[in-house]
Amino acid sequence: MNCVIKSVKNFLNNICEFVFPSSCPLCGARVSVHGELCPDCWCAFNWISNPKCCKCGYPFPANLDLGAHPMCPTCAAGNCELDLIRSACVYDDASRGAMLPFKHGGRIKYGRFMSRAMIWALRDTDIRPDVVMPVPLAYLRLCRRSYNQATILARPIARAYGVRLDLNSVRRKYRPNMGHKSSRERAENIRGVFSVRTPDTVRGKKILLVDDVMTSGATFAELRRVLMHSGASAVYGVTFCRVVHAI
Ligand SMILES: [Zn+2]
Ligand SMILES: [Zn+2]
Question: What is the DSSP string of 142-210?
């Protein structure tokens, strides 16, 4: 019976592919897998691979031989914002060019290749989250934008881990945009914006946070603070891209 359903599914997929051929979400070139990037667009991104910090995923120059578990100075000093962080690519012209329309321009379809890249970025970790939680948006911002870009990225990641997507445990207060502030100003501005509404759904849980970009890590650090305060047992994070400062 399963075999028959599979064959029918394949047949219908082939018809759909013939009528609506898959195209690269960024440039429109023909691709073989729906929602995936064409080779040219794929190569424009600065994907993070090894060597990288085994804790926060900070990318080191490719020609360095740092052993099996290299660690950046921040993590070596025990100051990583979370228990583990991974990002798919570096924040640069290419990732900004995809992320801004995804976040502010309604290009939700970009979420497919972005979330796949994030799942790929987590491949070399052995984390086993109990829940996946998109970084919450303030209600006012959610009303203006009509969607939380982090939720769009988080849904396929929760599916990949086979765990629950938690959209309700944490609430975020509205604060004006953090734009071009320094790391310290960001940390001060974010302090106290998150509150755990339902500690029971957080207590004892290993939580994987999802966001589109990591700038200073202040958002992750503040979320971790309130989640741990409510009894979470571990807090990890994954983003599509991250700002990489020289260390
Ligand atoms: Zn393309
Ligand atoms: Zn690190």
Answer: HHHHSS-HHHHHHHHHHHHHT-EE--SSEEE------TT--HHHHHHHHTT-EEES-GGGTTT-EEEEE
